[in-house]
Amino acid sequence: MVAVAAAARALAPSSPASDPAQLADPRRYLAMAGQHYENFPVGSWLLPRVARVHLHRIYAFARTADDLADELRDAAALAAFRADFLAHLDGSSRDVPLFVDLVATIRDCQLEPSLFTDLLDAFEQDLTVQRYDLPELLDYCRRSADPVGRLVLRVSGHRDAQLDRYSDQICTGLQLLNHLQDLGEDLHERDRIYFPREDLVRFLVTEDQLRQPHADAAVRAFVLHWAERIGAMFQAGWPLVQIVRGRLRWELRAILRGAAAVLARIRAEGGDVLGGRVHLSKGERVRTVLAGLCSARLPHFVGQP
Question: Pick from 135, 124, 157, 126: which is nearest to 55 by CA?
């Protein structure tokens, strides 16, 4: 209970994590998502209720651990969180309701524990690593983003290596798209640049340029280059939408419509992610969901429509 109690003491009072007892109530898990801006939430009402319950537990696990790393910068609390989780997993502890419920999900859905420990590894890395080259960045996304997509597939009844590869393309793309939107914020607030050092050098972009209120021509070129690379990842992962069964197909279509809308917004701002409006409003996110429900066609991920 140590790690969850640490989150309770230090996180904002308005957060559901500010009261560990609230984590005993599965109805509170989804409320945690409302405390954070998310372009691409998983476990929405588009999925069946049973799947939503499992995914909300997974979200609560990931969100709490991520906050211990990114908001609190508390390595000791994150280590305790890992130890508590592993103790519940091996049956030696049963005192944290979130972990009790999550272990039930892991057993019911036959989830690989490595997908959860990979997430924790990535959150721990955020405490110590602030700069990346390309192989390091892709390895980080493999552990910080790709497990989420694989967990969604497992909860929805899909176990297939090719589907995992499609999912990894989508999830890495979503992670990078969030990092691209938050390029300036990550540097200002966390002294962190996720994008490869070699690409910054190639586009003649310095860290001082990334600290400015608006992107100059070099930064814009760098951003638009990465927008195209990310769009190509979504396009490579699109076959997953056509293969999966049931309502998961709707969820994926809605998520990828949202991703295409963000890419279009970044292009419309000329790549100015430092000062332009590159996050979707709530109304715009709702419209992308509706578009995903109404249309099965491939969105425009790469270049202009």
Answer: 157
CATH for 156? 1.10.600.10
- Considering the domain architecture, whether residues 182 and 82 belong to the same structural domain is answered as no
Rounded to whole angstroms, the maximal C-alpha distance in the chain is 57
The residues, ordered by sequence, that sit 6+ positions from 161 with a Cβ below 8 Å of its Cβ are none
Helix (H/G/I), strand (E/B), else coil: 148: helix
pLDDT in tens, the chain (305 residues): 555 544 444 343 333 333 444 444 444 554 454 454 454 555 565 677 888 899 999 999 999 999 999 989 999 999 999 999 999 999 999 999 999 999 999 999 999 999 999 999 999 999 999 999 999 999 999 999 999 999 999 999 999 999 999 999 999 999 999 999 999 999 999 999 999 999 999 999 999 999 999 999 999 999 999 999 999 999 999 999 999 988 899 889 989 999 999 999 999 999 999 998 899 888 888 888 788 778 888 888 987 54
> Is-above-0.85 flag for pTM?
yes
Where in the sequence is the domain holding 136, given as residue range(s)?
131-305
Structural domain count of the chain = 2
d(CA 62, CA 123): 9
Alpha helices (H) in the chain, listed in sequence order: 2-10, 49-70, 75-89, 97-109, 113-125, 134-144, 146-155, 161-181, 183-190, 197-202, 207-210, 217-237, 239-243, 248-268, 282-294
If asked whether residues 63 and 92 sit together in one domain, one would say yes
Q: CA–CA distance from 287 to each of 252, 291, 305 (Å)?
A: 15, 6, 18
Domain identity same for 249 and 229: yes
